[in-house]
Design brief:
The radius of gyration is 19 Å and the shape is elongated. The chain is an alpha+beta fold. Helices cover 36% and strands 25% of the residues. Strands 2-5-4-6 form a four-stranded antiparallel sheet, with no helix packed on it. It has a two-stranded antiparallel sheet with strand order 1-3. It is built from three helices and six strands; from the N terminus they run H-E-E-E-E-E-H-E-H.
């Protein structure tokens, strides 16, 4: 009933805040693969994870239009051989395979379950 409606409004507000806020990416350049620094990006950006073959990994915001091999070669002239991945969801350049959406899906499932039990 009423609690379910209030919970649904709260959930929608939380999702709207997540969607409307700017993109966030991990920002670091290291050899360990561990990265905890987070950077706020502009609306034109995507996240990039660029891995130097046999070397360091660079994670940061970058313009979406710069996510191609020729542009990245110009941007990182000291790195001769690399692989890269650009993505456009929050903290998607972590390098881990865990989806960022998992907590949202779990919260939604809990909310729907609670609402169902009130009916």
């Amino acid at each position: 009933g009423r609690v379910c409606l209030q919970g649904t409004k709260l959930f929608i507000t939380a999702i709207w805040t997540l969607v409307s806020s700017g993109l966030r990416c991990y920002k670091c350049s290291d050899y360990t693969g561990r990265c905890e620094n987070v950077q706020e990006c502009t609306y034109e950006d995507s996240c990039i994870s660029l891995h130097e073959r046999g070397g360091k990994t660079v994670r940061q915001c970058t313009r979406y239009t710069d996510c191609d091999i020729s542009r990245l070669t110009q941007m990182f002239p000291s790195i001769s051989s690399f692989t890269y991945r650009c993505c456009n969801s929050n903290l998607c350049n972590s390098g881990s395979g865990v989806a960022v959406a998992t907590p949202v899906v779990a919260l939604m499932g809990s909310l729907l379950s609670a609402c169902w039990s009130w009916m």
